[in-house]
């Protein structure tokens, strides 16, 4: 019985959103479950997927809060950083 935990920062991927949408979560659950079925022959009904959204202020990256890390990296590269 596989249990997969996916952790993402709580922020939207499109303007005006501040969380992962229900549709995006459904796609993650389906994709991860199908991957385990296809690679490890684990039945869909035996696979559990848990999605945890973490507030950005509770997410650290490179020794910094995620927003500070992204800002620092953007300054170094001259572009916008991808989300965690």
Describe the structure.
- Residues 2-67 form the 4-oxalocrotonate tautomerase-like domain.
- It comes from Caballeronia telluris.
- The active site is at residue 2.
- Keywords: Isomerase.
- With 84 residues, this protein is of the alpha+beta class.
- Helices cover 37% and strands 21% of the residues.
- The protein has a domain at 3-57: Macrophage Migration Inhibitory Factor (2-Layer Sandwich).
- It is built from two helices and four strands.
- The model has no long low-confidence stretch (mean pLDDT 90).
The succession of helices and strands, N to C, reads EHEEEH
Going by CATH, the homologous superfamily of the domain at 3-57 would be Macrophage Migration Inhibitory Factor
The span between the termini is: 28 Å
CATH topology of the domain at 3-57: Macrophage Migration Inhibitory Factor
GO molecular function, one term: isomerase activity
Organism: Caballeronia telluris
Active site: 2 (proton acceptor)
Keywords: Isomerase
Set down the secondary structure blueprint:
Blueprint: E1 3-9, H1 22-40, E2 48-54, E3 60-61, E4 64-65, H2 66-77
Parallel strand pairs: 1-2
Antiparallel strand pairs: 3-4
InterPro entries: 4-OT, 4-OT-like_dom, Tautomerase/MIF_sf
GO molecular function: isomerase activity
Protein name: Tautomerase
């Amino acid at each position: 019985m596989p249990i997969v935990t996916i952790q993402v920062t709580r922020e939207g991927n499109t303007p005006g959103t501040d969380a992962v949408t229900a549709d995006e979560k459904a796609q993650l659950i389906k994709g991860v479950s199908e991957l385990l079925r296809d690679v490890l022959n684990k039945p869909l009904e035996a696979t559990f997927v848990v999605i945890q959204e973490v507030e950005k202020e509770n997410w650290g990256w490179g020794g910094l809060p995620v927003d500070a890390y992204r800002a620092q990296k953007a300054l170094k590269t001259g572009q916008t950083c991808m989300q965690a």
